[in-house]
């Protein structure tokens, strides 16, 4: 078991032990506290729903906090520090495996692919996955979803990530792009906007998308505790209806319009860069166009986790995914 997973499960065990069942939100409250795992252009439809006033139309005020990490995000949810979490679906499986009495349930999808890209230090006239064999590959942190997806894609192309290349995965998430820029690795797996920034600056060149290669997965979505879903379904339906409006709006609008709409969430990022990243994610179908998580995406998630040796136990789709809310909103 990886250090990442041990720490995550230990923290969850403590929170589950001390937390009590039930929702922290009062029936007469219209403010929803949302804990997001990170701040990312990857989440554009959610920010667009906020900026376009769709939540206000549904009588909801969003109190948004960035918790910077899956463990911290789930801790906020399970300890009633947040009503809703925006986080990867794999975390709900880890919680469930700890025999949580009030498990985290995904009720709305936000992203439906991995969000990382393969960046080459050298500009290649053509790229084949075979080019990775014998190379120094700077991957993501072991035990995290990006690394699991990365290994899944390499294996799909007949590459053993632990034998066919020199895999570096002991660098903290926030320092991976810095390490590559400093000369470590011939290839690197990067999130946006670093991948596009490196391409613009000539530091590296995007040669493949892990999102395209790994297929549809419930990569990031909105979760609530089971008790809240049972007690506050009408409120969560209004939340999801606003999100759905944002998803449809992003689907219909050009990248430059979306970038302007969400720019306040990325004050230090040039609008031109935000536009490029939005366009890249839109073009490969990373943004979910509806809040419904599909069974095949859930199965693919567990396959990826299992191949990486990080699936604590298989969990049925119906156990940790609520489709009623999304289906009601989409009628």
TrEMBL record:
InterPro entries recorded: SsuA/THI5 (IPR015168)
Keywords of this entry: Signal
Coiled-coil region(s): none
Subcellular localization: Periplasm
UniProt keyword Signal, yes or no: yes
Major location (coarse): periplasm
Record keyword Heme present: no
UniProt name for this protein: NitT/TauT family transport system substrate-binding protein
Source organism of this protein record: Halalkalibacter nanhaiisediminis
High-level lineage: Bacteria, Bacillati, Bacillota, Bacilli, Bacillales
